[in-house]
Amino acid sequence: MESIGKEFFLAFMPLFFAIDALGILPLFLSITSDSRNADIKKILRDAIFAAFIVSVVFLLTGKLLFRSFGITADDFRIGGGLVLLLIAILNLLFSSEGQGRSSSNEMGVVPIGIPLIIGPAALTTIIMSVDRHGLVITLLSLVINLLLTWLIFSNSKYIVRVMGKGGTRAFGKVASLFLAAIAVMMIRVGITNTIMGGLK
């Protein structure tokens, strides 16, 4: 039981930092600032549902795609790690504020669900988590993270009031640092496994 709890924690935390719900909270508020409360609830519901569907499809078909394109898990670790590292660096150096609002009725799906909640960082993390921790634990960590994201976004105005915009931005920067460290780890493991595999 203790090992299962440890595996869940190790799957949950990288995805938590990859999604970075508190870090993207100011952007969510900016996008939905002109919407009524009832509309925001629908937008959020659509966003979480879209994020879940895309994640599950990617989770279930990721390895099949690997085989189809002749990609190994270590290839994806290195490539995905580089993408994660770039995303983390961009998040550290630049603010997400100032991006345009969407007036579309589909803003829950795009851009909030995809790619704001589930983007390249989260998808890469999900694939690596399946490879390392298995399907069930990864799916559970995904569901819990999406529920946590829904909870944070549902109470967004209260959270920003308590933490302040500066606090949410600071949390986002810390999450980006952890994301950068996870990316470096993925690249390191991918290169090491590739070299060791070549020596066998």
Explain what the structure shows:
The protein is 84% helix and 0% strand. It has eight helices and no strands. It has helices at residues 2-19, 25-31, 37-69, 73-93, 108-117, 120-133, 135-154, 156-199. Helix 3 packs across helix 5, helix 3 (37-69) packs across helix 6 (120-133) and helix 4 packs antiparallel against helix 8 (156-199). The chain starts with a helix and ends with a helix. Mean pLDDT is 85; it is low at 98-104.
From the structure above, extract its key features.
mainly alpha
Compact overview of the structure:
The protein has 8 helices and no strands.
What's the rounded overall pLDDT mean? Answer: 85
In total, the number of strands is: 0
Helix content: over 70%
**Main β-sheet description:** none
CA-CA gap between termini: 35 Å
Give the number of helices: 8
- SSE string: HHHHHHHH
Strand content: under 5%
Poorly predicted runs: 98-104
Oligomer designation:
single chain
Inertia-based shape: globular
What is the C-alpha radius of gyration, as a whole number of Å?
Answer: 17 Å
Structural class: mainly alpha
Task: Please specify the SSE layout and strand pairing.
Blueprint: H1 2-19, H2 25-31, H3 37-69, H4 73-93, H5 108-117, H6 120-133, H7 135-154, H8 156-199
Helix pairs in contact: 1-6, 1-7, 3-5, 3-6, 3-7, 4-6, 4-8, 6-7
